[in-house]
UniProtKB/TrEMBL annotation, chains A, B, C, D:
Record-level Gene Ontology MF annotations: potassium channel activity; proton channel activity
GO cellular component: membrane
Recorded topology in the membrane: Multi-pass membrane protein
Protein name stated in the entry: Putative membrane protein
Family membership: Belongs to the TMEM175 family.
Keywords: Ion channel, Ion transport, Membrane, Potassium, Potassium channel, Potassium transport, Transmembrane, Transmembrane helix, Transport
Ranges that cross the membrane: 6-23, 43-59, 74-94, 106-127, 147-180
Places the protein is found: Membrane
């Protein structure tokens, strides 16, 4: 199994998940600004889920970059991750429809939690194959961000039963945690534009 | 016709089938756990169909790996396979809606049977092109797993008219038969992580 | 503009058209064989449209194979072709819903006619770029099959106003004309399996 | 992050946006020509949005062509662009449903404006990385077409509140501005078909 096909298939699935979520956005009832505003929670959810897929796509690429040999285990761990992410259009639509409700909000968090765990399993499996001294094993390190995200998801699910809006803030926080540092690192590079020339 | 384009096109179609099935999952009626639980058969069906596409994608890759020259016959045998698999979102949705009914369950099995036969035809056609002594001909061997799956589908379709749930167990069994050995082989490799270094 | 990206983009669009058509198949009303049989015209239409996309994908590949340089004109001629083909899920669904009606049947033919003309324009444009003595110019030759298909579509559209079913037979005939010869050529190759070894 | 994966992912997302818009076209009510004619505004919108995606795909390719190194900033600027474009099926469907209404028409323009700004940000970011003297910096030049489009979108949004049809003409004008020159340049090349041989 060539790595490029695994990457291409995963990219394809992620690109489709990203794009078909828009099909779950219902048409506003009427042609007024109020009709559009009624969709605000759905649009914000769409933005959040879009961000998540963008982050997974980005991290997934870096993760696979370190793989030298694709085994059956890596392949299935990857499909396991894609399975949970593939449910995102479903959970996004449900939480968008009932953004003040506990169960849809908790389910959204549960799916993101399952995705995060699936991602961690994929990491473990690659490290097991590549060896403890491999590039990935060192790069992942203590993996504070990964385990911190899992903790935030768990907290979000618990909080969803008391205050769904707070749980949704937790989910947005996880996205920001992964999104912002990327830009920081980039800024360092941007200050040395001639570094690669 | 380059092999890489055939692979890329097949991967694209499989990735889309895998992902759009989620669009067939209806939104739960209401925001309660009961509303979500009412979707359990649909979600289980989704999981089963996801597994099937994952297995076909995996096996399809190994199959094409052995092809040296893509002929018109291979191309159409491949499209024939994709045709039956493309109906999976349709049959999955129908069986999900009527999981206790005979006809939807039998139809699901019939589509999987047609896919399995189409896969076997693709195998034959490749072997005819590559020669009896080719890598694929030897790898396929007596093809117990392939013919066994076909037998299980036929049995499942027959059983569907008496006990749909049992037929669905048969279909799940086929998926497990293809899924589990992969992991066994992988474990052997995993025990020798340095083998490829 | 690299040729590989044009091919990849076209393949992506064709793979998506092929696959999302299944989303236009409505779920049968009920769980009986009669409910499924009521979908027969829709399923036959799906098969026909699937065949058309398969044929276009196949021919499109051979066409682009001869291109040495992608110009803006080729790019837009290609997008023009993809535009008409992208309407296929729409026309397929409408003809499927009203398979005994003249207008939906004529529209289906009109879209296929527009696609065939767009394909011919793409051929002309490539030949203009590659030169009259190019491989493609000689391969296309008098292009009996291409112009014959266009004539059959025109005839089908006219016939649709008298007998929709006959028009649909015309459309199926075009698909067969393109499908069968491919297999004949293949059979010649299949008889010499060692030719490429 | 390899450039080819960024290109492939963007192409995938654009191909899917292009194709799933057809799913937003409702089936005509009935089998008559009148039923089809009632969809005219929707079909024209579909054509316009198809053109936009075709133009973005084309320009996006030329833009990325000049990139030598993909940084995190470029990646996120690219996802930012894809986010706004991904809303196109939603805004197209709404404007198609209410083509005489101000708010849907203004929203369509606002999304196109956001996409144009996102594209400009992506350009800036790439130029910042590649250096002021880079190929792209010189090619973009004073960027009259880019800023002119933004001005036309702003004008269109303002006009939408008085005359939606005029705003839609503005949007179509932007598409033509980007579409026609491409063909002019091409014609120059077409007059020298032997240039590349």
């Amino acid at each position: 199994m060539g790595k490029s096909r695994l990457e291409a298939f995963s990219d394809g699935v992620l690109a489709i998940i990203l794009t078909i979520m828009v099909l779950e956005l219902p048409e506003p009832h009427g042609d007024t600004l109020e009709a559009l505003q009624a969709l605000t929670p759905k649009l914000l959810n769409y933005l959040l889920s879009f961000l998540y897929i963008g982050i997974y796509w980005n991290n997934h690429h870096h993760l696979l970059h370190t793989v030298r040999k694709v085994t059956g285990g890596i392949l299935w761990a990857n499909l396991h991750l894609l399975f949970w992410l593939s449910l995102l259009p479903f959970t996004t639509a449900w939480m968008g429809e009932h953004h003040n409700s506990s169960i849809p909000t908790a389910l959204y968090g549960a799916m993101m939690l399952a995705s995060a765990i699936a991602y961690t399993i994929l990491e473990w499996r690659i490290i097991r194959n590549e060896g403890k001294g491999s590039l990935l094993a060192r790069a992942v390190g203590t993996n504070i961000k990964g385990y911190g995200s899992i903790a935030l998801y768990v907290a979000g699910i618990a909080v969803a039963f008391a205050a769904p809006w707070l749980a949704q803030c937790f989910y947005a926080l996880v996205a920001l945690v992964w999104f912002i540092p990327d830009r920081r690192i980039e800024r360092v590079f941007a200050n040395e534009p001639d570094a690669e020339s």
